[in-house]
Amino acid sequence: MTFRDIIEEMNKRDPAVTSGAVVGSDGLTVEEWHAPGDSQDLFALCAEAAQFFRESSRIALENGFGEGREAFFSGDQGCVFIHRVADGYFLVVVASNGIIPGRCRFLLRQAALRAQEIL
What is the pLDDT of residue 81? Predict the structure, then answer.
């Protein structure tokens, strides 16, 4: 199983998942997957998501919540979910507005466990 397979499986279970990537803490994608017709610029998004995740993790630590594990943000056209897989790696998943956030978080946690086995 590859990282691409893991993200594609998320899409099969919930078609609102449109793309995703395994990303290093430096913001560089290790491997990415796109649903057919998706044109999301994951390279740029992942670079920004890495910074966002570092900052949200810092805020969590400084406020006594422990090390950051997960972050989420949404816009008018979609949502981005970020979940730490291991030290220095996390999953970034992009979903359309039709996603049920709790379901996507559940799928993302399952995917993170499978990704840990590969790392």
Answer: 96
